[in-house]
Structures are given as structure tokens and as C-alpha cells.
Specification:
Blueprint (H helix, E strand, L loop, with lengths): L3 H11 L14 H11 L4 E5 L6 H14 L8 E5 L11 H15 L5 E6 L7 H10 L4 E6 L2 H4 L2 H6 L4 E5 L5 H8 L12 H13 L12 H20 L4 H13 L4 E2 L1 H8 L3 H13 L3 E5 L5 H6 L2 E5 L2 H7 L8 H14 L3 E6 L6 E8 L2 E8 L6 H17 L4 E6 L4 E5 L2 E7 H7 L1
Parallel strand pairs: 1-4, 1-5, 2-3, 3-4, 11-12, 12-14
Antiparallel strand pairs: 6-8, 7-8, 9-10, 10-11, 13-14
């Protein structure tokens, strides 16, 4: 274990808050506002999300915000970065206890101490430590980040049930992307403005993972990102041996993003058991690489039995493994809309008409009711495409008693009344900037 003087020097270095320059980072206001609210509520705050989505940055921006705007005393904040190489030989529960003890003894904070721990998964058994500290009498407010698979582990959920408050963080939305790449004035433009349209095509190409936004073509780095998640967050954690299966399954799902895929189909394609496929899909979802959406049924048993639609974490990741020029395809557009709906916190399903088999891309559920039907397509110029998309949308709207449906596309706006249902056309980039 590191001696006290050396450890206190590390604490001092990590807590030099004057070095945090908010101007270096995009101010992710909606996330920061929610996080600040959680700080003053009961519970251990968990910031979870995929690798390199900005969890550490958000934590540092929170510190600056609380020091400058909320007038929190700096001595009441302790930031611990467990990725610091100087701590690598001492990553045990005792290290956390010792750092908090040293801070109290040498800094002498008054009142409740806020402890922010970055990459907490580096400490084995951190779940039990957090529970013991939370249930004890010590006046400590914990905020933690870590790899998503660790923060969704079964043990964490069991030990900390009812003791956590979670903020889900995602890569940049298109709105954040435009604010970062073009500036806040870009948000006032309309969706068919050339700057917006070019920006959207760029977003489809490189995605919204913050680390890669300054790169003209980050494809190779995005593929490296996928490999890092597969090996560090999945293979290592779950002690998997079939690297080839995990890699090929991931690429297959990304290449078929927004497509309906069943467990049986994947089992036949890769020549492994359904249980293996189900396990691997669970790992991919916990690591935030792949998400799935179920066809909506009132019966949960029926939903489980039916194929799911698969979506990727980020359009840049999909584009990085595609061949040919497909960055404006309906497939990736649908993936972008899914991510947008997920970032807004919606409960998402899709619909298949039992009579003609035509699909409606998204249903939004609130409480017990379906409240919105959404269809996504690139263009509506082809009469066959128009008929197919409108038919699916109308079928879903009528099935769930909706008076309107949304048809998102790249060119047409306005509305029509078709078969008793109001069809609202919205241009995708403009719609993404509105919310």
C-alpha cells in the first residue's frame, strides 16, 4: 500500500480543481442539470454509459459547476481517479478507506463529504464497500462511474437495491454534434439548410463518440473502439474464450442494424446454441454496443418469443464496419431515430400488422398505453415506398387508437389526412434539432 505522504500528494494532484477548464468541453446541459439534482437527493449516484461517452468529463464539469454556482466548499469534495497509474499497485478497498481518511485528517472538511470515484470497477468488491458506507453513519455522498458491465452486474443490483440513483449517459446527439462542430447558431437553422444537411451526413458517417469528433475519417479508430469494448468489457469480465464468435456476432448485428433478428436465426447462422447467443447478446447490451427492441404485445411471454430489432450504440460504429457508400441508407437513419428516442428516455417497441405483415418502425409507450407511432424512411418519392410506409403507420395508429402518426424522412414536411389518420411529415435533421 502507498505510504500516507505519497498518497496525499496523489489526492492533492487529482483535486486541483483550478485545472478543470470548462471551456475545453461541450457543456452537456441536460445531463449536468439532472446530475446536480441527483446530488441533493438520497442515494448513491451512478453515472453509467458506454466507454468514452464523457462520464469523466461530466463529473469534472459537475465539480466546477458546484464550486462556482452552488458555492460548495472545495474541501467538501474528494475526487478519486482509479485509472491513475500511481494507484495501480494498491487497488483494494483499503485504498478508498485510506484516501477518505487522509482527506478528513489533513484537509479537515466540515459537514457532509461528497466523494466522486471514477472507474470504480478497478476495485474488487466495491459493491459491498458502498453498501456498508451508505448504511453506516458516516456522512458521505458517493458519485461513481465505471464500465457499464460492472455497474449492471447482478451483485451490484442485489447489494444496492433501493440505494442508487442512475444517470444514463450517451454519445453526442445530433444536436450536441452540431453545437460542437458548427456552433450554437447552427441550432437556429432549418433542416433543409445546406449546413444542417451536410452536418447530418457527417454525423451519420463519424457518429457522436466525443473522442472522435475532430477526426475527418475515424473509421479505423471506431473499429478499435469496438474491439476494446469486446475484449475489456466483455471477454475479460465474463472470461469468454470464443473471441471469433463474439467479434463476428457483433459485426453481423451492426451490419443488420434495425433489422428483425431471432435467437433461432442467430443460432443457425453461427452454429452455436440458443443459450450461448442469448448470453452474448446480454453481454453486448450491458456493454452498450448493441440494443434490442421488441415487437409490442400485451403478453410479455409473446414478446420474448418473437424476433427483436437490433440497433447499434452509434451511427459511426455502424458506418465503420459497412462496405460501400451506405451512410444515407434507411437502415442507419432508423438507428439514429432509435438512439434519439432512447436518449429521451422513451419506452420503445415496434409493430407488425397481423393481417398484411407490414411494419411500423417505432411505438412509444407511456404507462400502460401506446401514445405515439413513428415511421422512418429516407425518401417518399417512390409510390410503392410511400404506400408501404403510410400503410404500416396507419395500421399501428388504428390498432392503438391514435389520431395521428409521424412519418420521418429527409425531404417532405407538412401533413395529410389519410384513411382517417393525420400523417405528420417531419424532416429528420430538423426534428432532431427540435428536441
Amino acid at each position: 500500500m502507498i505510504d500516507d505522504d505519497e498518497l496525499f500528494k496523489i489526492i492533492t494532484d487529482q483535486n486541483d480543481f483550478d485545472r478543470i477548464d470548462p471551456g475545453r468541453y461541450l457543456h452537456r446541459g441536460s445531463y449536468l442539470d439532472r446530475l446536480k439534482k441527483m446530488v441533493f437527493e438520497k442515494g448513491i449516484v451512478i453515472i453509467q454509459g458506454p466507454r468514452r461517452s464523457g462520464k469523466t468529463t461530466l463529473m469534472k464539469l459537475l465539480i466546477r459547476e458546484m464550486l462556482e454556482k452552488d458555492k460548495i466548499r472545495s474541501d467538501s469534495i474528494l475526487y478519486i481517479d482509479l485509472e491513475d497509474f500511481r494507484l495501480s499497485s494498491s487497488l483494494e478497498i483499503e485504498l478508498l478507506q485510506k484516501m477518505i481518511k487522509l482527506h478528513r485528517e489533513r484537509i479537515r472538511p466540515t459537514g457532509k463529504l461528497m466523494v466522486l470515484i471514477d472507474e470504480i470497477q478497478n476495485i474488487d468488491g466495491f459493491e459491498r464497500y458502498l453498501r456498508t458506507s451508505y448504511d453506516g453513519l458516516e456522512e458521505v455522498k458517493f458519485l461513481i462511474t465505471g464500465s457499464n458491465s460492472s455497474l449492471l452486474s447482478k451483485e451490484l443490483g442485489t447489494l444496492l437495491t433501493g440505494r442508487t440513483n442512475t444517470l444514463n449517459l450517451y454519445p453526442f446527439s445530433f444536436k450536441e454534434f452540431m453545437r460542437f462542430k458548427v456552433g450554437p447558431d447552427s441550432l437556429e437553422r432549418k433542416g433543409r439548410d445546406p449546413i444542417i444537411m451536410n452536418g447530418f451526413l457527417n454525423y451519420l458517417k463519424i457518429g457522436g463518440i466525443p473522442e472522435f469528433l475532430d477526426m475527418e475519417d475515424p473509421s479505423s479508430r471506431l473499429r478499435e473502439y469496438i474491439d476494446q469494448v469486446l475484449f475489456r468489457d466483455i471477454m475479460s469480465r465474463y472470461k469468454l474464450r470464443n473471441e471469433r464468435l463474439l467479434r463476428e456476432l457483433t459485426r453481423f448485428l451492426m451490419a443488420h442494424s434495425s433489422s428483425r433478428i431471432s435467437i433461432s436465426q442467430l443460432s443457425r447462422t453461427f452454429g452455436v446454441s440458443k443459450d450461448t447467443i442469448m448470453d452474448y447478446l446480454s453481454y453486448l447490451e450491458q456493454a452498450h454496443l448493441i440494443y434490442h427492441v421488441k415487437e409490442y404485445f400485451a403478453s410479455a411471454k409473446e414478446m420474448i418469443r418473437r424476433p427483436s430489432k437490433m440497433f447499434s450504440l452509434d451511427p459511426g460504429l455502424v458506418n465503420s464496419i459497412m462496405t460501400g457508400d451506405r451512410i444515407d441508407s434507411g437502415m442507419i437513419l432508423e438507428n439514429v431515430i432509435f438512439l434519439h428516442l432512447r436518449m429521451l428516455g422513451h419506452e420503445i417497441y415496434f409493430y407488425i400488422d397481423p393481417v398484411n405483415g407490414i411494419e411500423c418502425d417505432f411505438l412509444i409507450k407511456e404507462g400502460l398505453n401506446i401514445v405515439k407511432a413513428i415511421q422512418v424512411t429516407r425518401e417518399l418519392d417512390d409510390p410503392k415506398t410511400f404506400k408501404r410506409e403510410v400503410t404500416g403507420l396507419i395500421a399501428a395508429a388504428k390498432r392503438y387508437g391514435l389520431k395521428e402518426g409521424f412519418l420521418l424522412n429527409m425531404r417532405k414536411e407538412g401533413s395529410d389526412e389519410i384513411d382517417g389518420i393525420r400523417i405528420i411529415y417531419k424532416i429528420i435533421p430538423e426534428m432532431l434539432l427540435e428536441m
